[in-house]
Amino acid sequence: MPDIEIFEVGPRDGLQNEKRLIPTAEKIALIDLLSCAGFRRVEATSFVSPKWVPQMADAAEVMAGITRPPGVRYEVLTPNLRGYQAARAARADEVGVFASASEGFSRANINCTIDESLERMVPIMQAAREDGISVRGYVSVVTDCPYDGPTPPGNVARVVAALRDLGCHEIVPSDTLGRATPEAIDAMLAAVLNEMPADRLAGHYHDTDGRALLNIDVSIERGLRVFDAAVGGLGGCPYAPGAAGNVATEKVAAHLASRGFDTGLDMELLEQAAVMARGMRG
Ligand code: HMG
Ligand code: MG
Questions:
Q1: What is the CATH number of the domain that holds 235?
Q2: Are the CB atoms for 8 and 227 separated by under 8 Å?
Q3: What is the mean pLDDT of residues 242-266?
Q4: Total structural domains in the chain?
Q5: Given ligand 1 and candidates 9, 48, 97, 234, which is best to mutate, with the most ligand atoms within 8 Å of its CB?
Q6: 269, 43 in Cβ contact below 8 A?
Q7: Where would I find the Pyruvate carboxyltransferase domain in this sequence (predicted)?
Q8: Which domain holds residue 260?
Q9: Residue range 111-133: average pLDDT?
Q10: Whose CA is nearest to atom 56 of ligand 1?
Q11: From the CA of 86, how far away is ligand 1's center (Å)?
Q12: What's residue 22's pLDDT?
């Protein structure tokens, strides 16, 4: 068991925002390389509306084409029951549902209110329970929203509590814009930890303002031991204008190693994957 798990989201969060339609074979090659680098979990794609995110339209083909070494679990995002059913058919090991801590981003990203999005999850959670598939719950814009401004920590805690009650095994407070300060992340986590213990939270920090490593450090102080990252630092969310990609996996791995934490990752393979990922950028 590594001290800290890096949850690789590059093939989904990293690639979803690329304008050039990346050939399916390139996505599969990236995932297959990442699968050899020591990750326990890789977010491979998303089963969302291709009208909303055209880059992810080949989700089923990606899942069908990857090679699955033992010990690696593949997670995919699902916005509704239809997406969940497609994910199950594609043999996803885990699915991610996503809600927002602000109404403005909820409307922009999934075209509904926060409460409607939580209701939409009910049949997904029920089906996942029956199928024995675990569900990760993302909460976006946990400190700042591009539409509604600063997010009060109490609003994040309310959505975290709802996702917990729905049955998410892990909840992922996300700095979608990548503009959070360590102080804001700390205040947000203080509120969230009243609802969910640290060992069931994962930090997901975009790196627009270059503070993601500091945000990871304050989260470690708060007890978190799982962090999302995207190889090559690719990506962003199409519905968060101006946001850069997730913090780069290789940067997080090097930072954690310098602090004495084992991530179980093969740094050479990781660097190869980062070169491949950067080459995919349009
Ligand atoms: P809608 O337009 O309100 O609803 O979209 P709809 O039901 O009318 O669907 C629109 C069209 O998509 C229809 O096609 C549906 O059939 C189809 P038409 O009838 O017009 O031909 N459709 C689907 N197709 C394939 N798979 C599906 C699916 N569902 C509907 N599952 C909806 C609502 C939620 C579907 C849409 O808004 C959507 O897909 N949004 C996803 C946006 C997205 O993927 N954003 C990025 C991921 S989240 C993220 O990046 C944040 C995260 O990284 C954390 C962070 O950093 O904050 C996780
Ligand atoms: Mg993200």
A1: 3.20.20.70
A2: no
A3: 96
A4: 1
A5: 48
A6: no
A7: 4-271
A8: 5-280
A9: 98
A10: 176
A11: 13
A12: 97
